[in-house]
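The freezer alarm interrupted the setup, so I double-checked each line after restarting. Inputs confirmed:
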Amino acid sequence: MKWIQEDMEMFVKAREYLDTVVIPLYPISFGEDVKQTANMTEFINLLTTQLERQFKGRLILLPGFTYFKKQDSDKLVNDLLQWENTLISEDFKHVFYVTSDSDWKLKEQELTGSLIWLPALPLELLDGKSRNTMIDDQVKQLLNLFVKRWHNEL
Amino acid sequence: MSKNQVSRRQFLSYTLTGVGGFMAAGMLMPMVRFAIDPVLKANATGDFIPTKQKIADLTNEPVRVDYTFTQVDAWYESEVTSSAWVYKDDSGNVIALSPVCKHLGCTVDWNTDKANQNHFFCPCHYGLYTKDGSNVPGTPPLAPLDVFPFIEKDGFLYLGKAKPRKEA
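Predicted 3D structure, all chains:
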């Protein structure tokens, strides 16, 4: 489900079925990597939208954790851990982070939730059709990851 | 000539009726067109979305058929790709099922659960549907999968808007 009123109405009724939260991590920078960070954000946005469509009934896609690349990474991890604690106290069992920013890979151990890092596709080089197929393919591979994680809990 | 005399009075009343008629028609025609416009629209193929699937290529094994349409969210238009599960039943009729789980809206897959071969399976809460789309009792979904109305045009499949079924 998306973070929109319509979906949340359904969420209130079927809360016990939703135990997973997906938080996309969106980097922003106006330095040399302005295009890269924008592309990462665009790519992860498309990918998570598609992911949400597949697993609408089991996960909530939050609007995303947006940060500046310049920010201190330890502080960012702390912020994210606070998000995590809040979500766990709300009875969510699984937290997934999805990002293209490889800096998070270094901080993976410090987070309790699962970090999914995917290199961003060069979206500018793709036309609409092939973009959709490529993102679909990537999402398909992610699906297994989610299903396995859910299975382990049983 | 003298027998078919048209009097001044007659001539004027004919002309007035004629001109008046034209004016009335000019006013009424657009109104009538507005009134029946929805009817005319529904008659066009507009509501059916083309797919790349040839009807002749369908077998009794469900295949995923993708179709793309434009979705408008307030001012934001986006191209959305959706899919349908399409196959031919034993008597050769085409069946097009919606992949949206009737429980909470996840996307169901064909034949992915090893314990339940030849079923539609929802990975979110392990919902099951038989091949004809009926929900398996004891699993979370409470209704059968929606069915797409479809038409065949030049051998290709065109899908309409998925409709819920009544019987459970």
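Quick read of the result. The mean pLDDT of chain B is 85.
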